[in-house]
Structures are given as C-alpha cells and as structure tokens.
Amino acid sequence: MGETIADLILRSFFTINMLPIVLLFSAGLKKRDRFPYRLAGGIIFCLFCASLFTHGFLTYIVEFCAMTVFCFLLYDITVKESVYCLACAYITQHISYGLYQILFRPDGNQPVYSIGYILVSIAVLAAVYYLVVRKLPENGRFNIDLKFSMFSLCIILLLVLVLSIVADNIYAGDRSSMYYVCMAYDLICCVFVLWEQVDYKKKLKKQREQDMEKQIWMKQKELYKLRKDDMETINMICHDLKKHLESLKLFANEEERQTYFNEVSKTIQSYDSQLETGSKVLDILLSQKNLICMKNGIDLTCVADGKKMDFIHAVDLYTILGNAIDNAIESVLMVSDPEKKIISVSVWTKGKLLLMQVENYFENEDLIFENGLPLTTKKESEGHGFGLKSIRNSVEKYDGCMDVGIQNNTFRLMIVVPIP
Fold it and tell me: Any stretches that span the bilayer, and where are they (predicted)?
C-alpha cells in the first residue's frame, strides 16, 4: 500500500506542484459561485487525470488540459484566460525546477520533494507573486491582449520544452556543464517571458489611458464648438429681449408690471453679461461656466488678463481651464454652506510667464495624492481621474507645469506656462 501511495505521488508530481502556482496566479480573479465546492472537486479531478498515465509527454498534455478546465470552472474567465493562467504557472514551476537543478545539482537519487526544492519553490513563488502576479489581474480578469501574450508564451513554452528534452535526455546522464548551460538558458527565457507580461501590461494600460485622453480631447473640441455657437445664440436672443423690454417699459404704468419687467431684465442681464478678458476663447469659456454656477448657487469670480493667451490652442485652453473649473464646480457642489460655494479664477502674466490659478473651498483635506495628482473620490474610476491628467498633458505641450495643493480648506490649482 505504501508503494502505491508513493507511486501515486510520484505520478502526480507535476499536478501537485502546479496546483498551488495556478491558485497563486488566479488569486486576483473573480471567483464563481460555490467556490469551495468547485475547488475541492477540481483538485480531485486533476489528481484523477494525473493518475491515468505513468510517464511521457501525453501525461503532461492531459494534466495541462485538466488544470485548464480546473481554472475555468473556478473563476469567471474565458478559456483563453485559463490557458494563459496555466502557461504562466507552468513557466513559474519551470523556474523553480531549473533554479533547484542549478543551485543544488541533485544526483537523481534524492526524493522528489526534497527540502532544497521546497525552499527554492517558496522563494520563487514569493518573488513571482510580488513582481508579477499582483500586477496582472485587473477587475477580476486578465485584461490583456491575449493574442500577443499567448503567442509569446507559446514560443517560450516550445523553447522550454525543447531545451528540457535536450537537457534531460542528452546531457542528464553525466550532468555535464552543457546540461547546466541548457538549464540556465532555459531559466533566463522563463524569467524574461514572465517579466514581459508585466511590461506589456504596463504599456497596454498606458495606451488605454492615452486613448481615453484622446477621446476626452476630441469631446472637449466638439463641446467647445457647440458651446461657442450656443453662447453666440444666447447673446443675440438676450440682446433682442432687452430691446423689447425697453420698448415695453414705455407702456408699463402699473407698479407690479414694472417690478416684473425689472426682474426679467435683471435675469436677462445676467445671461447677457459679456466678459472681456482679451481672449475670445476665455470669454466664451467663463461665460458658459458662469451660467452653470448661477444655476447651482455658486459664486464664480474671475480676474483675468487674457491678452497674451493667443499662443495656446483654443481646445487646449478649453481643456485646461474648462476641466479645472468643472472639477471646482463638482467639489463646491458637495459643500453644505451656501456662503462657501465660491470659485475663484485668476489669469495674469509675470514677465515671460503666463499664470493661471483656480481656487475653491474644499472640505476633505485628507485627500490622497499619487504622482502629484489627487486620487479620484468617485466610486467608478473608469473614465474618471483623467481631468487633471488631461490638464497636465495640455500644459506640458507648452513646456509648462502645474501644481495642486490643499491648505486651510482651499483647493488650489496653479498652472505656469512660459510665453514664447
């Protein structure tokens, strides 16, 4: 009976070795319902499949397929993602095996699960988890380009298998230096492909952010054109209404009617108020934002000298100050005290520098900053948090810089751009 158990363990060595690594790589994935039952059944299924064959290449194929099914049934992912998870796990297992062979140089008479192999495996798993595993899953999925990743993984897996076969069948007999050269090269390939997954994930994330920012920029451009037309139309209507009211006042004798006309005139005057900063783009932007502030009981004050802002493209200026004021409006809307719903916009020049500052009252001074920018406080980060990034990207186009800070319940965004 002892030999049978030992035989079973030896036969299932690959599966027993792989299962913890698979679970490690899938730690950040979204679990399916009744996960504990699925886990127990999956382990039994994998061990059963491993016991069907003694040795040979077919054994590894069956075990790999069984663990792919195991991964798919446990986690809410696609079959491709399951194969990807297994491929990464296999490469990690091979790193442990190769490193053990190089460091300890076993003679073949040592037990499969020696202390040395266990220690090496633990060290490798800890390093791989810290450097690779934590950075791969996103929102419970492997959000990657599976075509590219699977292609690179398959190439490396093929290379690893060839080198392993060569090392085990040609050089393993006398454990010559060539055997360890093959193992070392094998090991380097595995480490490289794992790190490539992390690096590619970073590039993919950066590309997604750039695509999102480009979409935002295009929307800002369309929005600017629409709002420019809207403001011109509103100004024309207000101008005509003012003329009509002035004419009607000549026939208004009753006190109540006069009061009514005065209120309407005051309202129209507020919509017809034209800011003259020296920059037509800034005038349109501030007028439009002022309308939003008036509707929400926010006092928007502005001291701006826009005469030297012509070198900034209209869409970039709209992105910079438009996003800045929008962020300030969102923040001030959460303030309960009506007296503190104030936004201050200042634009001025100092020598060869153009300075823009947006300030607003802010109640949450415990805001967390990352890379000089506050993290979004919104529950859904997708599509959010790009406002300040868009501002910074637009400012950097003109070799400028921006600074964000909170002091005495005042959120301050300062932008400095050199005037060419």
Answer: 12-29, 36-53, 82-100, 112-132, 144-166, 178-198
